[in-house]
């Protein structure tokens, strides 16, 4: 599939950033779990940074959606950049890791950047697994729209 992509496309795997942090006591609730607001704040910062690096211009936040991955719209006046942030909880003492949350953010760039000639690359899957994930998110969006 990547060979069929537009010339200005980029593979999903080439748009990924990672970040690690150790949850300090001040970021934990009385049960020793990380505060959801703190985790969401860090997820947003990572999503913002990833979007900035990908687009090459300061992003403008559009929405956060914890369930659905919005399909890209071919609107040259307001291209949407969908970002998935996956949070893993790692227990260093047990040497274990598991996914605790998935966050989905949508950004665009300021119209002035587009007017100055900025072009946003299309992101395409490079594996069958990535393609299925994109299709699942598009199906979830279609179900939400028709409900």
UniProtKB/TrEMBL annotation:
Q: Which residues form the signal peptide?
A: none
What Gene Ontology molecular function terms does this protein carry? hydrolase activity
Which keywords does UniProt give here?
Hydrolase, Repeat, Transit peptide
Query: Which intervals hold domain HotDog ACOT-type?
Result: 13-141
Q: Which domain of life is it from?
A: Eukaryota
* Family affiliation: Belongs to the acyl coenzyme A hydrolase family.
Q: What is this protein called?
A: HotDog ACOT-type domain-containing protein
Q: Which organism is it from?
A: Eucalyptus grandis
- Source species taxonomy: Eukaryota, Viridiplantae, Streptophyta, Embryophyta, Tracheophyta
């Amino acid at each position: 599939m990547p060979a069929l992509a537009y010339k200005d496309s980029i593979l999903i795997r080439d748009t990924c950033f990672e970040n690690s942090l150790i949850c300090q006591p001040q970021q934990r609730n009385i049960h020793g779990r990380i505060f959801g607001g703190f985790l969401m704040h860090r997820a947003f910062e990572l999503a913002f940074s990833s979007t900035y690096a990908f687009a090459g211009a300061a992003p403008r936040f559009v929405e956060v959606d914890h369930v659905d991955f919005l399909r890209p719209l071919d609107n040259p006046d307001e291209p949407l950049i969908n970002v998935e942030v996956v949070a893993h909880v790692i227990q260093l003492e047990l040497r274990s890791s598991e996914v605790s949350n998935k966050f989905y953010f949508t950004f665009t760039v300021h119209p002035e950047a587009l007017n100055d000639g900025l072009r946003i690359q299309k992101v395409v899957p490079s594996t069958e697994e990535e393609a299925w994930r994109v299709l699942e998110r598009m199906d979830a969006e279609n179900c939400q729209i028709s409900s």
